[in-house]
């Protein structure tokens, strides 16, 4: 089961760096830090006859080539939570695109609709791959993105999807999944080139010990570079501050856990930092 995410983010805004008169600061002067100004804009792109509505976020004051990160939403569709994570990645120096896997920005308001939408995506991986590739092309078309440095993160449904695409040979440096199922429609093999990070809650009733053991066995057999992290006491959707309320609304075992949320985001930064060292 996947859930909707609602979150907020914070932006850092500073004044532009003031140049010193001398080539070296005089005694007691400090060099100003580079300015960070994260912005976000809606973008449209298409696959065949389907128009997708994504959200691109980046530091507009950083004009250097840098890695791009695709953010894949949970089963409710492209929502504010995916956009929030894209903005957070932009704050870290990446160019991030929150993708739209359902097309036309569709979102579900009820679990039954969410299951229908996500089932259609998982049930037609060829069409879904084409949509993901369209998002990939949109991201690398940004002049500040290094087209040879692309990774993806995903939540719940989105995490399962990006792992499946990576297993199928998608050109991704890394994929990071949060509270995601690990029984995938494409199993790992020689086509898997990406590094993989999976972070789940140990108390998540949707992810069984048997499925995790099978996932690890498959990854080991494929010789994959991966890490599986399990957070004690964390339930499904532990990264979402609105998870507890949503669980109560739909009678689902969902709960936000601040500590696991913070630890998993720090782990993601470590993961991406190892792939894209400064």
What do you see in this structure?
This protein is of the alpha/beta class. Helices cover 33% and strands 22% of the residues. The protein is built from seven helices and eight strands. The chain has helices spanning 80-91, 111-123, 125-140, 157-167, 209-221, 243-250, 258-275; strands spanning 38-47, 50-59, 66-72, 95-98, 145-155, 174-178, 195-201, 226-231. The chain has an eight-stranded mixed sheet with strand order 1-2-4-3-5-6-7-8, with helices on both faces. It is globular, with a radius of gyration of 19 Å. Mean pLDDT is 89; it is low at 1-26.
Write a concise keyword list for the protein shown above.
278 residues; alpha/beta; globular
Q: What Rg, in angstroms, do the CA atoms define?
A: 19 Å
Q: How many E strands?
A: 8
Strand content: 15-25%
Give the helix tally: 7
Distance between the termini: 38 Å
Coarse structural class: alpha/beta
Unreliable segments (pLDDT under 50, ≥5 consecutive)? Answer: 1-26
Strand adjacency order, main sheet: 1-2-4-3-5-6-7-8
Sheet with the most strands?
8 strands, mixed
Q: Mean pLDDT, as a whole number?
A: 89
- Listing every helix as H and every strand as E from the N terminus to the C terminus, the arrangement reads EEEHEHHEHEEHEHH
What level of helicity do the residues show?
25-40%
Shape designation = globular
């Amino acid at each position: 089961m996947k859930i909707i995410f609602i979150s907020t983010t914070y932006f850092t805004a500073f004044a532009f760096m003031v140049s010193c008169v001398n080539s070296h600061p005089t005694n007691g002067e400090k060099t100003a830090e580079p300015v960070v100004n994260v912005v976000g804009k809606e973008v449209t792109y298409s696959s065949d006859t389907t128009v997708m509505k994504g959200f691109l976020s980046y530091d507009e004051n950083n004009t250097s080539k840098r890695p791009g990160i695709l953010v894949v939403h949970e089963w409710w569709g492209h929502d504010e939570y995916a956009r929030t994570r894209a903005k957070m990645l932009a704050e870290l120096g990446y160019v991030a695109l929150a993708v739209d896997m359902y097309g036309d920005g569709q979102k579900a308001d009820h679990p039954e609709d969410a299951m229908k939408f996500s089932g259609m995506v998982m049930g037609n991986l060829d069409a879904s791959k084409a949509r993901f590739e369209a998002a990939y092309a949109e991201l690398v078309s940004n002049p500040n993105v290094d087209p040879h440095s692309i990774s993806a993160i995903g939540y719940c449904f989105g995490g399962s999807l990006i792992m499946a695409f990576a297993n199928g040979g998608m050109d991704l440096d890394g994929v990071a999944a949060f509270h995601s199922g690990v029984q995938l429609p494409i199993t790992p093999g020689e086509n898997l080139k990406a590094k993989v990070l999976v972070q789940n809650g140990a108390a998540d009733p949707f992810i069984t010990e048997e499925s995790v053991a099978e996932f690890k066995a498959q990854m080991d057999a494929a010789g994959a570079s991966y890490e599986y992290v399990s957070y004690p006491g964390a339930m499904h959707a532990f990264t979402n501050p609105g998870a507890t309320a949503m669980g109560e609304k739909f009678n689902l075992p969902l709960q936000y856990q601040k500590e696991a949320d913070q630890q998993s985001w720090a782990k993601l930064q470590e993961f991406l930092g190892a792939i894209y060292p400064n």
